[in-house]
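Morning, I've got a small favour to ask if you have a moment. I've dropped the whole record in just underneath, so have a look.
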Amino acid sequence: MTARLADVTAALEAAYPPALAQDWDAVGLVCGDPDDPVDTVLFAVDPVRATVDEAIGSGAQLLVTHHPLLLRGVHGVGADTPKGALVHRLIRAGTGLYTAHTNADSADPGVSDALAAAIGLDVEGPLQPAPAEELDKIVVFVPVGPAITAVHDALAAAGAGQIGDYSHCSFATAGTGQFLPLEGANPAIGRVGKLERVAETRLEMVLPRRKRAAVVAALRAAHPYEEPAFDVLELAGLPASVGLGRVGALAAPEPLSVFTERVAAALPPTAWGVRAAGDPDREIRRVAVCGGAGDSALGAAIAAGVDAYVTADLRHHPAAEHLLAGSLPGRPSPALVDVAHWASEWPWCGQAADVVRAALGGSVEVHVSRLRTDPWTIGTIGTPATSGTTGRTSS
């Protein structure tokens, strides 16, 4: 069976839901016809000339990248612009371009899971869990009969009873309701001044808290009673499995110097290399990782109580302030291991390729680009101009 481009993107979006992307991001299909047949897909970190040439040269009908080509708003893709030229080249060759960016960062598993696996960590959970949707449970008592179906359907239409890929989820139990209509009441069952006992069903459904008002209004409109009895309960939030970064542990502790070598061996080499900040002999066991630029999560790494934090693009001042704060008694901070941005996200390409392979089997051939598209091309360690350095250097 021939796969279509739409089949590939559906598999990717099931693994990396676009809803997880940040609101500033640009993810999804950049160019390509969803109905076009696809038998070869290339995965890469960056949509640059080299990877576009590789995709077209290998006969791939789709290039999947982590970084967006058109992240910021554009008003045209003229072939006389660098990015527009790539779009035109892809279209002329019949090769589509698809991006999974911050949605792949937060997915479970996602970019940081791939980084953690490469390093050899047993993942515990996200470093910065995504906020879980706030949920309520509505409990309503309905007289036995057709009213149960009417109320249930009204609540479902208003947004209650949705759990994952299932709708109309509910639980019902039988019981007896009791009420005494007072003067001025207009009871649907019974009469004023007479105590009534009625066979009723207790109906329970969950709902997003943001839909509370709509669900309660639907209940009142569909319920046969003048004054329906119901409860709205706020449910405790559960830990999210999605979010930025991951926290994990090594099988056995090792010194920071050895752990730094482990990280370097796990990732493709770059001019940036791998550098660490901290006592070379410090014991490392629990580790936080964040693929891509992660200095904004330094606080989360401290709060997680890890021994080391592996990420990319760490800046001088946040790193220096982090180490200074950690030097105070009773305020330990993790050692820092800084890697190249491209290298930290490259392991995800293999993960994403596995997603498509598992979903579409032999109908699609997948390849991971091994071209180094990290922008830094030269790295050197000069001879110190003065003596008395406090760190260790290696080439």
Q: What stands out?
A: The first strand starts at residue 3 and ends at 4.
